[in-house]
Amino acid sequence: MNKADKQPTRLLLIDDDEVSRELMALLLENEGYQVATADSGEAALQTLTDTHAPDAILADLQMPGLSGAALAAALRAATTHAVTLLAMSGSAPQQDAATGYDRFLLKPFRVEDLAAALAATAASGAPNAVSASPAQAQPGSPAAPLLDEAVYNTLLRSMPREQLHQLYAVCLDDVNGRVERMQLAAASNDAESFRREAHAIKGGCGMVGATALQQLAARLEQDQTAPANHVATLQELLLLCKQLQDILFAR
Fold it and tell me: Dmax of the chain from CA atoms?
């Protein structure tokens, strides 16, 4: 996007995770995009009813309610002109979940990855290409750092240090709350709720470069053993939160 001679690209960002949604909106606005947000597929459709349609829509694939291929079809039907639909998730899409979208982005991704996906779609229209940040930590990779310094410095260029640290505080508070819910899910052997919270932690932490937390949450999401087996790992998540808080406090 050439900000000097073009109107801002209008984006509608759909994500049920507040931390990821607000951070992405902030970063995209700082890059010159005009961003509206919605916390569900249903809310996004209402937005399209009330306002002019955006140039592109970026939707998380794993949300409660209307999501995935069904959301893509509904968004297409609700817009009167061709709109670029981009799917995103912290995991590779399952089966036909990304059907109907023009591109898929693997979280966490960079603003440059989004720009490339928009440009590629405009140039070719070919669907279902995958774009991902090469810096993304993969489950099982060794020695993940508590904080990705490249991500931290990128965010620091986008906002004052105090605001950035407030953002990390919100993210870590969110992790602590989700770990509490995971502990309850483990006690009742509710695997679906347990893995859903782990997925949300993975996505939020990935966006702010909390790599060790992201990696550990990814392992918990993918592990198929009973949640009750992961009590010690949940304590490790809480310990990592405290360690990252200490790192940030010292800056």
Answer: 57
Quote the CA–CA distance of 20 and 58 in Å, as a whole number.
12
Out of 71, 101, 132, a domain closes at 132
DSSP per-residue letters across 83-99? -EEEEEESSPPPTTTTT
CA angle 120, 121, 122 (to 5 degrees): 90
CATH number for the domain that contains residue 166: 1.20.120
d(CA 53, CA 156): 32
Which residues lie closer than 8 Å to 221 by C-beta, 6 or more apart?
91, 195, 198, 199, 202
Query: With 80 as the cut, is the pLDDT of residue 136 above it?
Result: no
- Rounded mean pLDDT of 231-244? 95
Three-state DSSP class for residue 48: helix
2 within some domain:
no
pLDDT at residue 41 in the model = 94
**Helical packing angle, 111-124 and 18-30, nearest 10°:** 70
Phi, psi of 85 (to 5 degrees): -110, 120
Pair (126, 158) in one structural domain: no
Can you give the residue range of the structural domain that contains 119?
10-132
Whether 234 has a pLDDT exceeding 90, the answer reads: yes
